[in-house]
Amino acid sequence: MKESGEYFGMSYEMLNEKLLELQDEMIAAIQQNMRIESVKGEPLPDAPYGAGPKAALDDMLALGEKLGFRTGHADNRIGWIEYGDGEEMVGILGHIDVVPAGEGWKYPAYGAEIHDGVLWGRGCLDDKGPTIGAVYALKAIRDLELPIDRRIRVIFGADEESGSSCVKYYVENGYEMPTIGFTPDAEFPAIFYEKGMSNFIAGSKVYDKGEIEVEYFGGGIAANIVTPACKLIVNGSIKVTPAEGVTVTEADGKTIVEAVGASAHGSTPHLGKNAAVMLLNAVKDNEFGGDFQQLMDFILEKVGTETNGRFLGVYYADEETGETTVNLGIVEYDGEALKFTLDVRYPKNADPEVVDDMIINHINSYTFDVLKKANAKSLYVPKDSELVTKLVKVYEAETGQKEEPIAIGGGTYAKEFPNMVAFGPQFPGDPDVIHQPNERVELDKLMKSIQITAAAMYELAQK
């Protein structure tokens, strides 16, 4: 492995300057893709994740061709843009799908507007901005004719937000695996550990409508987002305990109760305020009976305001890798069927099989079935590995800040490939706006993160 000294430092400076020259073109390319509403939709013959993700994927491939790179895709599920020669390959893994916009935006969610040096909109950070930035980092490396020993491939999936089936397809169908790499889809300075995850969709048909007829109860926009708003519609009148964020309307013989909470990423549910829990707490003094009562009891007794899994018997804590988190994301009841989602993440001292068994037993004890379960393994790359060492060194060289690699609850694409970790784009101390209304990024910080990405790509391309 080559030692990074003055030569690499000069290369970093050259890359930084080149990317500043490309800034206007790069930001325009990012805005163009952000204006595509690439939320997963109904599959089409040539668009397995729907029209939006396919349009964003096509836009990326067209950008790669326009810039003169080799491009390819795996059946419209995941694409790549590549430069260089050599048997080994550096992989930079991003994604161009996004979570739904939700409510509460200051500027249009898909407008990609810039105000006072800030870019607003879905995907600016997660993950279109960093991914397209990596393509321009590739262009900067090529245009400067910097010597590299490994090829560099920027890979971009179209289904990261709904389970990463795009990368699984890439792996299972024998496409080339990176030797080393990172995903610019989390935080700096580098993430050496990601929690294991268990995700559940639970529910049942409605067999008993109870004493109070519930016409509708629902809320949430994704399993990995704290339920930001929730609504209950009941035929007749019910008792509602006044609470902040909860409103009551009576009309046409119905009572409508609405709650507005605060969204947060499913890996940090304690930072949000779950609207479904808020609403049910406000109406819990009513004896609904039937299956709705079962749903309400489960949510309040086994999830409630605790977000560390204690009520479900899956609380674990580890000094290095944190605590268990449990997020209630989506709830639905329409009088015919009901369902809810649980997103559970646990530190390295947890036993995944025990976690799954405990939660399944609790779900079954309330007469619900597990309709679907998915698991994601934890990720661990030693702090003294070539990969983590190089990334932390690049971060320090580019920022002047000496930071230790970190463990997170969020899951990233890095779990899908060996010898890969998450690296950027958010800086320590920045507010977490990913998956929330008003996702935004200061252009100066976005550019700095892309400069760091470019230096890391160049560094990893050296043997």
From TrEMBL:
Identify the enzyme class: hydrolase
Show the Pfam families listed in the entry: Peptidase_M20 (PF01546)
GO terms for MF: dipeptidase activity
Query: Which cofactor(s) are needed, names only?
Result: Zn(2+)
Transport: present as a keyword of the record? Answer: no
Give the EC number(s) listed in the UniProt record: 3.4.13.-
Task: Identify the Gene3D superfamilies for this entry.
Answer: 3.30.70.360, Zn peptidases (3.40.630.10)
The UniProt keywords, alphabetically, are: Dipeptidase, Hydrolase, Metal-binding, Metalloprotease, Protease, Zinc
InterPro entries referenced in this protein's UniProt entry, alphabetically: ArgE/DapE_CS, Bact_exopeptidase_dim_dom, M20A_pepV-rel, Peptidase_M20, Peptidase_M20A
In terms of PANTHER family, this protein maps to: ACETYLORNITHINE DEACETYLASE, N-ACETYL-L-CITRULLINE DEACETYLASE
Family statement: Belongs to the peptidase M20A family.
Looking up NCBIfam families in the UniProt record yields: dipeptidaselike, PRK07318.1
What is the name of this protein? Answer: Dipeptidase PepV
| Species assigned in the record | Bariatricus massiliensis
The primary gene name is pepV
